[in-house]
Amino acid sequence: MFRNQLPRYEILSEEAMATLDMGWRRIVSEVGVEFMSPWATELLREAGQEVEGDNVKFDPDWIVAQVAKAPREFDMRARNPKRGVHIGGDAMVFAGVYGPPFVRRGDVRRDATFEDFQNFCKLAQSYDVMDSVGGVVCEPNDLSLDSRHLDMAYAAATLTDKLFMGNVVTAENAKDVIRMAEILHGGRERIEETPALISLINCNSPLRWDDRMLDSLREYALANQPVICTPFLLMGAMSPVTIPASLAQQIAEALTGIALVQTLRPGAPVVFGSFLSNIDMQSGSPQFGTPESAIGLLATGQIARHFGLPFRAGGTLNSAHTADYQAGFQTLMTMLPTMLAGTNFVLHAAGWLEGGLVSGYEKFVLDIEVLEALQHQFKPVTFDEASLAFGAHVEVGHGGHFLGAEHTMGLFRTAFYRPWVSTAESFDRWTKNGSRHADVRALEVVDKKLAAYEMPEIDAQVLAELDDFVTMRKTQLDG
Predict the structure, then answer these.
(1) CB 132 within 8 A of CB 93
(2) Mind listing the pLDDT tens digit for each residue in 254-270?
(3) Which of 6, 401, 443, 447 is spaced 20 to 30 A from 124 at the CA atom?
(4) How far apart are CA 383 and CA 368, in angstroms?
(5) Nearest CA to 423 among 434, 412, 414?
(6) DSSP secondary structure string, 392-442?
(7) Which pTM was predicted?
(8) Rounded to whole angstroms, what are the CA distances from 428 to 277, 281, 352, 432, 434?
(9) What is the Cα gyration radius of the chain?
């Protein structure tokens, strides 16, 4: 897990924060937010909020008081204790792409399968910069819709020993994955003490929390498993076209979801979520890696810290169809502000293509190199007498070179970050080696990693109990 100890890049003035504060307060109190599950509206009514059908109008000060009950930081356990993570503060946790129904390998774009899901688990396990494979890293379309959540959770739990995400399609799915976490970690008490699952709860923007998300939220909150309350905002479609208006809506949606969690279980861990970009105003298509999304990301970090909450945002988002130049620059357009903002939980940190419709094999590996390079860039530089290397100047003198200096020879193996997909070969050498572009070299790395993969050890009794539970539930769900 990476600790980002560099200063945060904050762009909102006190006046801007005050304007946003006024904006979200007006939205929740005058317009209201819809909650599409009766239990949620009844709970909020009992808490003193104004309920008209599915719409709830809030006392903003009540929301602030509820949000203050959430922890600023919390720990999470993994199957391998050495891979546990911290959410909040200067900690950054990186998880894979989430949700694509398709995969791309080379020139082939096709429906994702369970084998693809397993492959991405293996790749995530193979790189230390990845703290989690994530959740639905791709949708296994060849499996039963009713029970595939069991297969995905089982694969994430056994093919990796890292943190993985809960399923949120239905409350029953959430219960199943919670039960699997209990088996993996020794019971309900242990995962309530230190959570083992984190789950993505999306707001159906604008201003509506739907029943499936709410019902899954309730299961995880009652089990003390953190949820990421995330407005899904594409400016011009699900929010107004101005950044301030979208930020005010984002605050209103995220805080109402977080307030509900704290009403269910005061002190339950929660994450302020953000998925904020814009549409192309000519075609209406989603756009990613845009200047506006970067501004929103930087602002979101400052807003979340203002409310004392860990936050999720950013990732390797792009609109490209293949792992090409567009994919690379749009990825960095999102990942650099992700790092500058000190994002605590980074979903979509590897593999994202085509606006989130595709999990890319080459893109996954290329993104790993981006993550490694950025983590290297965001490590503080030590300034001391040794780092000034005065002796090297004495040795080399005027007009010489440092390549063979004693200082260089002693540090050359570790002096700089060494990329392993990118190349600095001369043109002649690159041509002699087959003129292989970066995506081709990345796919070679994919094949080598999958061939070398070794499954992490798992306790035989735990595995047997997990097998029994999955078999039993599949029988019940699929007949």
Answers:
(1) yes
(2) 999 999 999 999 999 99
(3) 6
(4) 28
(5) 434
(6) HHHHH-TT--STTSHHHHHHTTTSS---SSS----HHHHHHTT---HHHHH
(7) 0.97
(8) 42, 45, 33, 6, 10
(9) 24
Beta strands in 280-422 (DSSP E): 286-287, 311-312, 345-346, 352-353, 358-360
pLDDT at 479: 80
Domains of the chain (ranges plus CATH)? 2-8+68-377 (3.20.20.480)
CB contact burial 412-426 (16+ within 10 A = b; e otherwise): eeeeeeeeebeeeee
| Residue at 68: amino acid letter | A
Q: What's the confidence (pLDDT) of residue 145?
A: 96
Tokens of 276: 């904020």
Q: Which residues contact 186 (CB under 8 A, 6 or more apart)?
A: none
Q: What percent of the chain has pLDDT over 90?
A: 99
* Cα–Cα distance measured from residue 250 to residue 99, given in angstroms and rounded to the nearest whole number: 21
Average pLDDT of the residues in 225-244:
97
Tokens 């440092």, residue located: 402
Indicate the pLDDT class of residue 360, thresholds 50, 70 and 90. Answer: very high
DSSP-based three-state secondary structure for 130: coil
Tokens of 477: 């769900």
Give the number of C-alpha atoms closer than 13 A to the C-alpha of residue 298, restricted to the C-beta side. Answer: 18
Q: One-letter amino acid identity for 246? A: S
The first and second tokens of residue 110, run together, are 């096709």
CA distances from 192 to 68, 186, 225, 228, 380 (A): 20, 11, 7, 17, 35
DSSP per-residue letters across 245-281: HHHHHHHHHHHHHHHHHHHHSTT--EEEE-EEEEE-T
For the chain, what percentages of helix, strand and coil (3-state, to nearest 5) are there?
A: 45, 15, 35
Question: Quick check: helix, strand or coil at residue 230?
Answer: strand
Average pLDDT over residues 109-137: 98
63: helix, coil or strand?
helix
Q: What is the pLDDT of residues 389-418, one digit of tens each?
A: 999 999 999 999 999 999 999 999 999 999
What digits encode the pLDDT tens for the residues 265-321? 999 999 999 999 999 999 999 999 999 999 999 999 999 999 999 999 999 999 999
User: What span, in angstroms and rounded, lies between the C-alpha atoms of 264 and 122?
Assistant: 36
